[in-house]
Amino acid sequence: MKFRSIRFRLSAFMLAAVAIPLLLSMTITFLVTKQSLREQTTGENERLIFQGAVNLEHYLQSVNQASIAVYKDPHFLTNLTRIPNDYRAAAEIYTTLETIRNTVPGIVSVYMHSYDAGQSTLVTGSAPKRGQREHSYTEGVPYRSNSLYIEASHPTHLYGFSSPGPAYGKDAKVFTLHRSIQSIPSPRRLADLAIDISLDTVRSICRELYQEGSEQLYLLDSAGVVIYSGNETLIGQKLENPELIRGISGEQNQGAFEEGEALHVYQKLNADLSGWTLVKRIPYETLYARATRLTEINAGITGAALSVAIIGTLLISIRITQPIKQLVRYMEKIQAGQLDVDIRVTSRDEIGVVFRRFRRMMDTVNNLILREYRLELANKTNQLKALQAQINPHFLYNTLQSIGTLALQHEVPRIYSLLSSLSRIMRYSMKESTVVHLKDEAEHIRMYLDLQKERFGDQFDVSFDWEPGVLEEQVPKMILQPIVENYFKHGMDVRLGKTLLRIAGTRMAPDMLRLTIENTGLSIPQDRLNQLRGLLFRKPDAAVPEEQAAEDEPIGLRNVLLRVRLHSGEAGRLDITNIEPHGVRVILDIRTEERE
Questions:
Q1: What is the spatial distance between Cα 27 and Cα 49, in angstroms, rounded to a whole number?
Q2: What is the DSSP letter of 490?
Q3: Which of 117-121, 277-281, 467-471 has the lowest mean pLDDT?
Q4: Closest by Cα among 107, 96, 230, 226 to 176
Q5: How far apart are alpha carbons 10 and 4 in whole angstroms?
Q6: Which ranges constitute the DSSP H helices of 410-437?
Q7: For the residues of 156-205, what is the DSSP string, one character each?
Q8: Backbone angles phi, psi at 484, to 5 degrees
Q9: Does the keyword DNA-binding belong to this entry (predicted)?
Q10: Is the predicted pLDDT of residue 92 greater than 60, yes or no?
Q11: How far apart (Å, rounded) are the C-alpha atoms in residues 84 and 39?
């Protein structure tokens, strides 16, 4: 009898029901959490390393741009042949080199050797050094085809000169950008330029990418030499880790792999500029620390749950019968049609949960019944409002026709013509169809421009250029007016005199139509044009940054693009550019049915 009792069976069942799921849950949670942590950490660090690579590329690009200042100085290449006898030429060359040194933070020194003059120049924070030499100090540097080469981190040296002063910092480590100065457009090599750059900027960028003590970061060149590492002793040395080098040597620019009890995330920089690779090493101990901690917590919870289950089962087995009988009585009342039964909950155990869920279910049923009634009432109200909304446009259209007739009676035909154009514009906009013939769209924009002519007079001219046959093609409705409106809103300026608005349609292929809307008004500032393109082509569900005000949103153009895409699929396109000397051009590509 003891083993057949409800208490024993319930106790055994509760122990099994609690212990087995908790143990399974703890195991699965640990495995899933490990996988989730790996995926999450990989994704976060790929984005972090990518941003670090972008920052490094921007810094290297700024140094590269500074190095080509020698080509921006119209007299620099000529001065290379005049030194050392022409002191003015030497002074101008020094000024250019000093400008390069001060252009980008972190540049320690600038060295240049002129082959024609046989002279080397070193510019540092102190007085410049010059000397006659037959060969360049950097003659052995392996310049690439684009005449640019970045030398890995190394201690600073003096390029054969004596110490230029205490401010030079000769014990610091730098990396060097080498550039071959050529006699453009010929490939003849006039001089060698070497720019020593301090690791301070690279160090400040890299320190934001990892946690010192628990993670490691390496910045390697294409030969595996360490440009930067948290371990300062490795800088300038070749990294002795064949597995890591093999993991990043593939053709992919970024990725992640596991090796040596650690996760490695890497990102390659522009190969044409530096060929560097950022590698972040995350040990498993750091990667799975949260999973281990969570498993320890789950183990404690499992032990506590088993203890509570043993005690709770003894109490539940005694008090389980009465609540069930009470619940049955409630069900009988509800079955009889009494939906507003007052379900009282006294217990806090599983039976109490059932009571509360059952009461919530009945509340939901009652709320659904009331909601259906309110929805039906709201639907009737909306139908009435829709009928009223249909009356107003027709009333306004008929009123305009009456005013036009009155204008004819008083012999004012221009007013009648304008009212007629406005009425036809309203009738066109009230059409329920979303696709119209291009000739209808062209007639609509012609009437719209007729109204604008009355407003602006001779401030602009209009030109239409339709290729034969294109007016019979079908296009989305109301795609020209938003673009033309932007011309009157942003492009017209009395300081430009009379401007021209040109609208043209050509056939690009049997099933492709191109509409061109261009004007000779004001151009769009380049920064605004870039912002406009970004807002125009962002995804429909992408968030707009708070700094971009609502009025900056190109609602009209974006609406046109969306309707063209709905009509033409991926073949639909909207492009906006400036034209010279001033003006804006908008191009719409629309797919049409292929003609026989």
A1: 32
A2: I
A3: 117-121
A4: 107
A5: 10
A6: 413-429
A7: ---TTPPP--GGG-TTSEEEEEEEEEE-TTS--EEEEEEEEEESHHHHHH
A8: -65, -35
A9: no
A10: yes
A11: 62
Determine the Cα–Cα distance for residues 195 and 72; give it in Å rounded to an integer.
Answer: 17
Assess whether pLDDT exceeds 60 at residue 523.
Answer: yes
Which residue is it, tokens 């609602």? 555
Q: For residue 384, what pLDDT band results from cuts at 50, 70 and 90?
A: very low
Beta bridge partners of 263: 258, 282
Which two structure tokens, joined as six digits, stand for 417?
């013509």
368 falls in which pLDDT band (50, 70, 90)? confident
| pLDDT higher than threshold 70 for residue 408 | no
The lowest-confidence range among 209-213, 318-322, 422-426 is 318-322
Which one, of 533, 465, 532, 452, lies nearest residue 499 by Cα? 452
> Which structure tokens are listed for 315?
């109490």
pTM over 0.70: no
Type of residue at 594: E
DSSP string, 207-242: GGGS-BTTBEEEEE-TTSBEEEESSGGGTTSBP--H
Element (H, E) at 299: helix 289-319
**350 by DSSP, 3-state: which?**
helix
The length of the chain is 596
Which pLDDT value is given to residue 360?
81
Q: How buried is 258 (Cβ within 10 angstroms: 0-12 exposed, 13-18 middle, 19+ buried)? A: middle
Residue 180 has pLDDT above 70, yes or no: yes
| CA-based nearest residue to 239, from 268, 210, 209, 277 | 277
